[in-house]
């Protein structure tokens, strides 16, 4: 019998009507930082360019200052980068996630120990 997969803590922080930030938006910010491109970040996540732009717009209006600055393409090419606020938001989210993972390690382990292992499926001849 196979063991259940290790638990994955997915933290979503909601600020009421102002909006929320969770693992998807954090990952998008990380990919923008790594690639310098909203389109490439979206592709890396299997997300359409339009959806990636929508999420960036949501995040840029949610916080006091934009998280991502972008420049249009053209002869010199376009690009995107995290602003100082974007870097701060991403770092704070990752620190919160790590603190929650550390603080919750014991109860998470207790819950994981109670998960039934996946059932082997019989051959389908």
Automatic annotation (TrEMBL):
Single GO MF annotation: DNA-binding transcription factor activity
Taxonomic lineage from the root: Bacteria, Pseudomonadati, Pseudomonadota, Alphaproteobacteria, Rhodobacterales
InterPro entries recorded: LysR_HTH_N, Molybdate_resp_trans_reg, WH-like_DNA-bd_sf, WH_DNA-bd_sf
Protein name: LysR family transcriptional regulator
Pfam families registered for this protein in UniProt: HTH_1
Residue ranges of every copy of the HTH lysR-type domain listed in the record: 27-87
Record-linked PANTHER family: DNA-BINDING TRANSCRIPTIONAL DUAL REGULATOR MODE (PTHR30432:SF1), TRANSCRIPTIONAL REGULATOR MODE (PTHR30432)
Organism: Rhodalgimonas zhirmunskyi
UniProt superkingdom: Bacteria
């Amino acid at each position: 019998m196979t063991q259940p997969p290790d638990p994955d803590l997915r933290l979503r922080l909601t600020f009421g009507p102002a909006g929320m930030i969770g693992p998807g938006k954090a990952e998008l910010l990380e990919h923008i930082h790594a690639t310098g491109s909203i389109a490439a970040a979206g592709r890396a996540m299997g997300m359409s360019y339009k959806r990636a732009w929508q999420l960036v717009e949501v995040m840029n209006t949610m916080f006091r200052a934009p998280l991502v600055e972008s420049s249009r393409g053209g002869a010199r090419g376009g690009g995107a980068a995290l602003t100082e606020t974007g870097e701060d938001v991403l770092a704070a989210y990752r620190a919160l996630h790590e603190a929650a993972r550390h603080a919750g390690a014991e109860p998470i382990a207790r819950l994981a120990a109670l998960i039934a292992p996946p059932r082997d499926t019989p051959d389908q001849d």
